[in-house]
Specification:
secreted, five-stranded mixed beta sheet, 3 domains, 24% helix, 19 helices, signal, alpha/beta, 16% strand, EXORDIUM-like, Protein EXORDIUM
Length: 857
């Protein structure tokens, strides 16, 4: 009894202290300013040449887009709003530095276009390290220069598409007479990661899914490069040597433009670039006029005098009257942009076309049945409504529209039939495939009147998979009248990137963090594959040879389904799939019925007859319900995790609870873990089951993401490359990497003790489970929503955000845990509701012996 009294006192103190913390939290919550601290170092001044090193293949027209932008920086003879007006915002940094520095004799900055060096033969190869980028930069001028290295779309650069779209730095400090140069590197992301580094001109694979804008120069890669060059150029002149204006850690600083991620116009929010000008003749979006009639989209810059993001429009309004006229013009031109899929007069697939499946790798018969049932459902009318067949009928509108625009009206209606299936379970070409090998596999199907669908298993790596795509489609080369075939490839993302290619059945690592839905076939990988097959199949029949219906560049087209990313039901918005049907017996979400009693979730299709983003999705014939988590969906979740906190009691008391597990964690090793920054920030598991006397241990691995992917694994202490773009918080220990590691350790530790051997508490697939903390992604405080961590405590002396105090005066930010009694996410500030809870020793013992938790030995 004495021990129980002690335990009660501990519990009462914990919960009473939490009540005080909760009240204190509300008092301290405030909008955090984002001041860029001046570290007293020099800013670039005087006449500086901008020298370009073009590495790889760039067309002259592409080079002109960049050179016109750079010459526009110092050219005042442009229509307003202009590039040069945007650049004038950097003068505020110089004025502020002048007031804080004793050196006031610096000349004003003047940027001039210098020499251009073409390295079209890839002298250092097509895979470059950071040191090789510096070596290329050194080919430019050695002083009074910013040397800009631009790599072509087929060049891989260390960390490109993983944690950065470009970078800037400076040559080593040498003797004064030799001088130094600054450098910038930016890559062309068009074929590698346009959704990451060319947004908003390409829809992102992850995060807020809004239709991409039309680029002002009609080149997704180059329009994206201009944005990144502009951002890094502003950072270079205001923080050239790492001791100018920045906020946060020196190795991962927030600078003039990177402190305002995703902001391009007034009213911007995650997934929306803001109010922009629209070219009436091309539909292109822009916010700045440049030299030679160019138009550009430029990022907002932080105003160092107000610590707020200043867009070009707001800067104009604050500067001069002429800009007020431009502002009125801007408002008049702002409109919902149409996203018509243009018909390029090419053939659409017609007649009887066989769907042939090439299964590459290991698939269970039950998994293959999910796909074949979907494909046979496309042409089967004997299904409950809403049905797969009804969804597919939307493609008929494309044929009707093509019929009115084409002279060839003798085409037969399209009829899809299930053809042959080929099993390559032994992975004849290995487990790492190139795009050419995918085409080789596709050729194993029929040679004409066919769509050959290559499906790769979850342990097969494919070029570009999880980096820039979840699948693709194409066609065999044009030959003599012998015919052609179309092909589709889709990968099973379950173990590689389910948060990217199987959303909304898995929570994304990046972007809007909403609870994943239950898949209609209870297989995250295959339910995700069906979505991607459906999307690519719609694109294949309406744009089989690259000259059908699409919008944007031919190499990265928006097609029937990809023009409606992330939309599955009415009312969809970034992070929310829309109103869907819910199977009352399984809790699964779906929007279409298929053959053999199957249910599927299918993507919305663009309606080509409305010439706007009027995306069709199957309409439920009964009252739609927004999927909600119910207690029944959490399998056997019945007792609160709070009981497990007893494991933290002193060892002297643990003998009172012999059934509680004792988990030992091995010393961490330094290694690059497969999947890090791709699909995970860490993981946990257990050693193999052996003889009873030997025992077992559980283990956790977490990586330090500071230099590799801080926007993925250290949010909210670093702004993400993808998804909701809100200013990052200041970490409580002033170390982005380690503060992020604590979050991931805490999350995995909670998962480890409650699901140590894969048969404890979890929801979803065993190989990709949702556990105690991972079921509440991105939630740290009350009122959290995608891109906002919630109400947090703020340290008044450092500005750091936290929600928990630790030993030795430490402060930490810890993730929310799912409350088993309510199936809702419980933040630390909500703990006060448990203040009357008592813990009974018999409850602990019964829980420990009923199979929910078991001793490790």
């Amino acid at each position: 009894m004495g021990f129980l009294k002690l335990l009660f006192l501990i519990s009462f103190f914990f919960f009473f202290h939490s009540c005080l913390a909760a009240r204190k939290l509300t008092a301290l919550v405030q909008d955090q300013p984002m001041p860029l601290q001046y570290h007293n170092g020099p800013l670039l001044s005087g006449t500086i040449s901008l020298n370009l090193i073009w590495y790889g293949s760039f067309k002259p027209s592409q080079r002109a887009i960049v050179t016109d932008f750079l010459t526009s920086l110092s050219s005042p003879s442009q229509s307003q709003p202009s590039v040069s007006t945007w650049w004038k915002a950097t003068e505020k940094y110089y004025s502020l530095a002048h007031t804080k520095s004793s050196n006031s004799n610096k000349k004003p900055l003047l940027l001039t276009l210098g020499k251009q060096i073409l390295d079209e033969n890839y002298s250092l190869g097509k895979s470059l390290s950071s040191k090789q980028i510096q070596r290329l930069a050194a080919m430019g001028e050695k002083k009074y220069a910013i040397n800009i290295v631009l790599t072509a779309s087929d060049v891989a650069v260390e960390s490109f598409c993983m944690s950065r779209c470009g970078t800037h730095g400076a040559s080593p400090k040498v003797a004064k007479e030799e001088g130094r140069f600054a450098y910038i590197w930016v890559g062309n992301s068009e074929t590698q990661c346009p959704g990451q580094c060319a947004w908003p001109f390409h829809q992102p694979i992850y995060g807020p899914q809004t239709p991409p804008l039309v680029g002002p120069n009609n080149d997704v890669g180059l329009d994206g490069m201009v944005i990144n060059i502009a951002s890094l150029l502003a950072g270079t002149v205001t923080n050239p040597f790492g001791n100018g204006f920045f906020q946060g850690p020196k190795d991962a600083p927030l600078e003039a433009a990177s402190a305002c991620p995703g902001v391009y116009g007034k009213g911007a929010y995650p997934g929306y670039a803001g109010e922009l000008l629209v070219d009436q003749s091309t539909g292109a979006s822009y916010n700045a006029n440049g030299a030679n009639g160019r138009k550009y989209l430029l990022p907002a810059l932080i105003d160092p005098t107000t610590s707020s993001c200043s867009t070009l429009l707001l800067f104009l309004i604050s500067c001069f009257f002429h800009s007020c006229l431009a502002a009125r013009k801007l408002t008049a031109l702002v409109q919902d942009q149409p996203m018509p899929l243009q018909y390029h007069n090419g053939p659409l697939l017609s007649g009887t076309v066989s769907l042939n499946l090439i299964w590459y790798g290991s698939f269970k018969p039950s998994q293959r049945a999910i796909v074949t049932d979907f494909l046979t459902s496309l042409s089967s009318l004997s299904q409950s409504q809403p049905s797969v067949a009804t969804w597919w009928k939307t493609t008929e509108k494309y044929y009707s529209l093509a019929h009115t625009k084409s002279s060839n009206s003798n085409r037969k209606p399209l009829l899809l039939t299930l053809g042959k299936q080929i099993l390559d379970e032994n992975c004849s070409l290995g487990k790492s495939l190139s795009s050419k090998q995918i085409q080789r596999l596709a050729a194993m199907g029929e040679k004409k009147y066919a769509i050959n669908i290559v499906l790769t298993a979850s342990d097969v790596a494919v070029e570009g998979f999880c980096m820039s795509r979840c699948g693709t489609h194409g066609a065999s080369p044009k030959v003599a009248k012998g015919g052609r075939f179309a092909y589709i490839w889709v990968g099973n993302s379950e173990t590689q990137c389910p948060g990217q290619c199987a959303w909304p059945f898995h929570q994304p690592m990046y972007g809007p963090q909403t609870a994943p839905l239950v898949g209609p076939n209870n297989d995250v990988g295959l339910d995700g594959m069906v979505i991607n097959i459906a999307s690519l199949l719609a694109g294949t029949v309406t744009n089989p040879f690259g000259n059908g219906f699409f919008q944007g560049p031919k190499d990265a087209p928006l097609e029937a389904a990809s023009a409606c990313p992330g939309v599955y039901g009415k009312g969809a918005y970034p992070g929310y799939a829309g109103e869907l049907l819910v199977d009352q017996s399984t809790g699964a979400s779906y929007n279409a019925n298929g053959g053999n009693g199957r249910k599927y979730l299918l993507p919305a299709l663009m309606d080509p007859t409305t010439q706007k983003t009027d995306c069709f999705s199957p309409r439920p014939t009964q009252a739609s319900t927004i999927p909600q988590r119910s207690t029944s969906q959490w399998n056997h979740l019945s007792q609160p995790y709070l009981v497990r906190l007893l494991q933290a009691l002193p060892a002297s008391h643990r003998h009172r609870f012999p059934h509680l597990p004792l988990i030992s964690i091995p010393e961490p090793t330094i290694s690059l873990h497969m999947g890090f920054c791709m699909s995970r920030c860490g993981t946990h598991g257990a050693s193999p089951k052996v003889a009873k006397e030997e025992g077992r241990f559980a283990y956790i691995w977490v990586g330090n993401s500071e230099t590799q992917c801080p926007g993925q694994c250290a949010w909210p202490f670093h702004q993400p490359i993808y998804g909701p773009q809100t200013p990052p918080l200041v970490g409580p220990n002033n170390d982005v990497g380690l503060d992020g590691m604590v979050i991931n350790i805490a999350s995995l530790l909670a998962g480890t003790v409650t699901n140590p051997f894969g048969n404890g508490f979890f929801q979803g697939a065993k190989d990709a489970p949702l556990e105690a903390a991972s079921a509440c992604p991105g939630v740290y405080g009350k009122g959290a929503y995608p891109g906002y961590a919630g109400e947090l405590l703020v340290d008044q002396s450092t500005g750091a955000s936290y929600n928990a105090n630790g030993a030795n005066g430490r402060k930490y930010l810890l993730p929310a845990l799912i409350d088993l009694t309510t199936s809702s996410c419980s933040t630390l500030t909500l703990a006060s509701k448990y203040k009357s809870l008592t813990i009974d020793e018999n409850i602990v013992s019964s829980i420990s012996t009923n199979g929910k938790l078991a001793p490790l030995n």
